[in-house]
Amino acid sequence: MHDFDEWHRLGKHWHAYVEQRVGNVPSTRADRLRRPPDHVLSSPRAVAEWLYRMKRVYLPAEPVKLLGAGAGWGTVGDDRHLERDLFEDELVASYGDSIYLSFACEHDRLDLWVEAVTTEDCSEVLHQEQE
Fold first, then answer.
1. pLDDT, tens digit, for every residue of 14-67?
2. What's the rounded mean pLDDT across residues 109-126?
3. Euclidean distance between CA atoms 92 and 90, whole angstroms
4. Helix H or strand E segment including 116
5. What are the DSSP E strand ranges found in 8-108?
6. What CA dihedral angle connects 80, 38, 15 and 83, to 10 degrees?
7. Could you tell me the sign of the dihedral formed by the alpha carbons of 94, 86, 49, 21, in that order?
8. How high is the mean pLDDT of the chain?
9. CA distance 58 to 105
10. At the N or C end, where does the chain have fewer CB atoms within 10 A?
């Protein structure tokens, strides 16, 4: 049975970052945690909702060929896909985990980083800038 409050007992919250990737090398967790986050998220639901909104903006709906005989076609980035991801992202965050996503753009990549942190990982100064 899954413990949906594990993140709380671990003292976790999340720092969210949106990055336009320069070159082929993504930033590191250490690099991201040294700078103020774009958003501070305080619950697994807030993590899932923030990712949902970002995917709505940055993830275009694209048809994909499904695997398996006679499986047909599906769509990545459509409402059904995003609704399923909303549930999955909340579940992952409820474990107190980080979530990393990367999308191909016309000329580069867009990375969404949701770093699970404790108070030891971050400075309250970073949070005050969010308020």
1. 999 999 987 788 999 999 999 999 999 999 999 999 999 999 888 877 888 888
2. 84
3. 6
4. strand 109-117
5. 13-21, 39-41, 62-65, 73-76, 99-104
6. -10
7. positive
8. 86
9. 8
10. N
